[in-house]
Design a protein that fits this description.
By secondary structure, this protein is α+β, with helices and mostly antiparallel strands. The protein has one domain (about 1-55): Arc Repressor Mutant, subunit A. The chain is built from 3 helices and 3 strands. It has helices at about 5-10, 15-25, 50-55; strands at about 1-5, 30-35, 40-45. A 3-stranded antiparallel beta sheet has the order 1-3-2. β2 (about 30-35) and β3 (about 40-45) form a beta hairpin. α1 packs across α2. The longest helix has 13 residues, at about 15-25. The protein starts with a strand and ends in a 6-residue tail after the last helix.
Length: about 60
C-alpha cells in the first residue's frame, strides 16, 4: 500500500509527477485504489493483499 506523499518522499519526485504515475498504473490495472476516500487516498498493488492473506492462511499456489 502506498500514498502519493510517501511515493513523493521516497522518489524525490514532485507530487504532480507521482499522481501522473499513479494514474497511469491505475489505468493499467497495476495499482488499485484502497478505500473510497479521495482525501488521503492510498493504492495497493493488484492482488498483493490476497497474496499476503494466502500466506498467512498457509495457502500456497496459483490464484
Amino acid at each position: 500500500m502506498i500514498t502519493a506523499a510517501v511515493a513523493a518522499t521516497a522518489t524525490g519526485r514532485a507530487r504532480s509527477q507521482v499522481y501522473q504515475a499513479i494514474e497511469q498504473r491505475t489505468r493499467a490495472g497495476v495499482l488499485l485504489p484502497f478505500g473510497t476516500s479521495r482525501r488521503n487516498q492510498a493504492w495497493e498493488a493488484a492482488g498483493m493483499l490476497d497474496i499476503i492473506t494466502d500466506l498467512e492462511d498457509g495457502v500456497f499456489g496459483d490464484r
